[in-house]
Amino acid sequence: MEKKTPGKVGIKDVSQEAGVALSTVSHVLNGTAPISAEVRARVLDAARRLGYLAKRQQKGAIASLSTLYLAVPNANLPHVNTNLFSWTMLSGLTRECERRAIKLVPHASEGDLSAPEIIAGARACGADGIILVHDHTPRLIKGLAASGIATVLLNGDDPFMSIDTVVPSNRYGARLAAEWLLSRGHQRILHLTWHGRSTIRRRLDGVRDALLARDLSPDACEVLYADGYEPGHGEAALSRFIAARGGLGGNTAIFCAADNLAIGALNALRAAGISVPGEVSVIGFDGVTIGELTTPPLATVRVPLDHLAAAAVQTLENRLAVHAPDFPPVRIELACQLIIRESAREASSK
């Protein structure tokens, strides 16, 4: 069969590739008749290899999504290179909308986000849906939920589950890092964090989950709070800690709630003459590119930022084109990946 580009592939091509009738392909793709598992798998595999499934999904998204309204708190806008997490995620969202031919309209706000202002802006531009990033203020979420406009909260917690939510698995990702350290002989872990949103607190919960699973006391994880998430905040907090304790206080590993804090921790340790990973292991969280360039390269928990953006758009698509009006809000968590680099190793036997 002549090879075709995904844009020209049709149901006839899938039929020929899978070696089944056109009607069989139609029944498999539309779920209109019982088909054997073997034939169904063969049809879906052929449609996937030819690019037909992606084509169908994209056409469906274009049919129900043409304009999205984006609301991001001013404090979380990526103005500087210290907010690479937001920059990377929003860049991924922009690329996903470009790929699906969706117009992305940013919300302009001078102060805190306001539900009436967001709703008015969304209606003014004829938006099909709203993507709210980071901000999970209860009053804001309740206002958006009551608006009748499909809304997805990206990287935030909605404890009442009144709107759809897409988040990384902060708790599970942190547990991965803590379990790796514990399994390599680290008995005391310093958790460097800040008084952030609940998504950040979930990372401390993950560390405590790992301790509990090993019947270890929560005291095996000491918590150090920085004034913020920037590298300078992490450096200052750890420098004060080292000065007050005359060292690391028996901690052989530092797990940081953000790569930014870990970068600051590396600076503080270097200034104090404490070797990494010789005397202490350091692991961050986020997986932004700058972690690969530190000395030593930073071990981290990588958040699937591009996939988060794509999942948020697809969740809106599902809400508009697939679910019935009374379908309950969903919460989607994407798994994080532990990336071990030179800043982390087994605990010293000394």
TrEMBL record:
Pfam families in the record: LacI, Peripla_BP_3
Tagged with keyword Transcription: yes
Sorted UniProt keywords: DNA-binding, Transcription, Transcription regulation
Residues annotated as domain HTH lacI-type: 9-63
Matching InterPro entries: HTH_LacI (IPR000843), LacI/GalR-like_sensor (IPR046335), Lambda_DNA-bd_dom_sf (IPR010982), Peripla_BP_I (IPR028082)
Gene3D superfamilies: 3.40.50.2300, lambda repressor-like DNA-binding domains
A GO term, aspect molecular function: transcription cis-regulatory region binding
Protein name per UniProt: LacI family transcriptional regulator
